[in-house]
Batch of 2 targets.
Target 1
Amino acid sequence: MRNRHVIIFILSCAAFIGCQDLKEKKEQPFKMIEQVDFSHVKIQDDFWTPRLKSHSIATLPVCIDQIENQTGRIQNYENAAHKTGKHSGIYFDDSDVYKALEGIAYSLINNPDPALEAKADEWIDKIAAAQEPDGYINTYYTLTGLDQRWTNMHMHEMYCTGHMIEAAVAYYHATGKRKLLDVSIKMTEHMMSVFGPDKRHWVPGHQEIELALVKLYNETQDERYLDFSNWLIEERGHGYGIGWNNEPWEPAYCQDDKPVREMTDIAGHAVRAMYLYCGMADVAALKNDTGYIEALHRLWDDVVLRKMYITGGIGSSRHNEGFTEPYDLPNYDAYCETCASVGMVYWNSRMNQFTGDSKYIDVLERSMYNGALAGVSLKGDRFFYVNPLASKGDHHRKEWYGCACCPSQISRFLPSVGSYIYGVSNNAVWVNLYIGNETTFSVGKKDITLKLETKYPWEGNVKLTVKSLSSPLKREIRLRVPGWCDSYNVKINGQSVNKPVTEKGYVVLNKKWKEGDLIELAFDMSVQVVAADPRVKEDEGKRAVQRGPLVYCAEEVDNTDSFEKMTISSKTSFTSAYIPAMLNGIVSISTIESGKNITLIPYYAWDNRRPGEMKVWIDYVEN
Ligand SMILES: [Zn+2]
């Protein structure tokens, strides 16, 4: 494929993520779209199916081996149950067990596996045995002194509990077994007996419990859990955080410097911020809280317009694993924690559900296909914690980390990607991501089966078939036009739709749908050359290359002669071609500049071959 060379000069990041008028009318505070859960979506896709497979044959086994054999995470529970031995590892290591359990649960939903389920049951028995009679559960404090529990906000007791709740809900959905759910409810009741409006104040130093309590509310319909989540969010910014004396951080590090509804600038630790915003969005949806929504809109503008990398990565600084000044986006030293990119997926999905605006899915897709996907090797058995946009050749994925949040994050994220494809609202079916699948869900009390076929992200053609529908159904089908796409066309049953109606980045097709109807989309997927906001000093005089949702990079292994002095210009003409044998099958982009070949590969695929230098931003010559 030879693509026309498109140069997109942009004045701000907003342009390339399809950002729309920031002064748009205030949105209704309640959720308008319900996500179609991945348990209804059978992914059949050349790009994602191999990733789901490597998740079950490589990612999960690595996580289980590390948790059980290479580190003492399960032994900690056994020690806690018997009140003997020492705690090993870091005080929040319990959270990795829960995140891997959540990943196991999702994997069981996609592919039942009795041996894997038995392993999860075995872990859950050990976890349950470590619960204190009053409901408290945390192996670190049980083994180091329960008298010290709840004395320091930074010790992640509620963070670990939040991950336990998420795992418990997931495992209950996967298997119908509620042992971990009962442990979680007992711990929640314990927390609510200690903290609350007429009890002790508390600010969790690492958010997560807030969104988890909403999941627990959704599962149990016990409103006290929703109210407790809301109360914890409202506790922030009033000086209630305790334990600062032993920490080098300011309250802003964990978003405790001001009440959440007054927040304007994203600051502090990136993953903490993402989890807080998810919790705020979840509570806002159920409580119709416009104050939270307005704050989330301000925070979104700040991060996406001023503090996000082209890869969708956020949190540029290693120092605080988080944010610094606007436009401070170094490439070699980019932090971009894998968990933060996954957090962007979680948060942007929620923002889309409030607004029906595709700009959030544009960011979700950018973070998912680039920042997050780079976090795992092609084989699925090695992980990045830090995701720089340039490397001298000394940065490589590892099997595990002392702080192992990112591998365990990947273990739960990958098997649930099917959740981001579809949404349903009162009058519409929403198609957000183009991943091959077959899905059946309910619309207007009718079951509809849709089949989506595509070679995305390599090609821009998409076929969506109404595979089964008992009787005709009058609804809109809204199909996202990706922010990166300059031109597209759409057909219904072979007929081109002239000047299709669009709203907030979606093509709106409104008719009485019947079985066998076929929608065809063709998105122009040309190579695009992108400039950063000129205020990003690190990218001055440089350009990045993207094609479709994928950001590209140059690796030394493909460019041994040209890497150091590589330049592109306004005259550079790129060729793109699918190469099945390269990096499990990719579209590589190439050109010849000054007599030397330049080959670019998708950023997510870097560091899967011979170690060497890498860069996303390439020197650019005006001519
Ligand atoms: Zn992480």
Note: Residues 424-482+487-523 form a domain with the Maltose phosphorylase, domain 3 fold (CATH 2.60.420).
Target 2
Amino acid sequence: MGERKQDKVLGIRTVGIREWTNNIIHYNRYEATPYKALKVLAENYKFRDTDRVVDFGCGRGRVAFYLHNRFHLPVTGIEANDKTYEEALENKAIYRLKAKHIIAPIKFKYGLAQHYKIDKRDNCFYFFNPFSVQIFKKVVYNIMRSVEEYRRTVDLILYYPICEYKDFLNTSTPFTIINKIRVPGGSDIKEKFIIYRLKEEFFDEAEDIELAN
Ligand SMILES: C[S@@+](CC[C@H](N)C(=O)[O-])C[C@H]1O[C@@H](n2cnc3c(N)ncnc32)[C@H](O)[C@@H]1O
């Protein structure tokens, strides 16, 4: 099924690209994660009933609608482009008519990802290259601070991961790779998901080491 047809099933419009008009170098353009990639993610990553997903740079909301519809999970999308955000809200209005039976909330917030206050229940964070690594670092540090305060295991799902994100996570954070999910048929090596996890125990172990020293 084509991308437009899959949009239609959900009652949304997410196909297309939107460039930033005013040369904002740190913010990347809008482009949705392909449905075939989302399908592979859904089949290979175990979403749990207790998960709460945040899509940083959610665009018109495709990932949020897809996961909400498939797994009935609470999802929040953060978007900094006002037009794109409005489109996500328009999508939500139609989608909600079709998905009345799903109790879990689906929310969109207008604003910068780096200013989003991480909810203590958020535990699964999605990124499809929304912004520069400088902003990515701020967002990841916000997540780490939240986890330190409200202990829990959290995952980062990176689609089409860029080296700068990976280098930062591998060298400067306690996140470790738990899975790599390739999108079959993709000719591009970057067409994959990398899942990074920070386990709840990490901070306890770090505290124990500190006490022992
Ligand atoms: C590549 S698109 C990904 C869209 C969606 N996550 C998906 O996978 O279908 C990146 C989105 O991030 C948004 N964005 C860029 N910088 C942002 C920021 N600092 N805070 C929030 N959103 C941002 C862009 O406007 C764009 O819609």
Note: The longest strand covers residues 176-182.
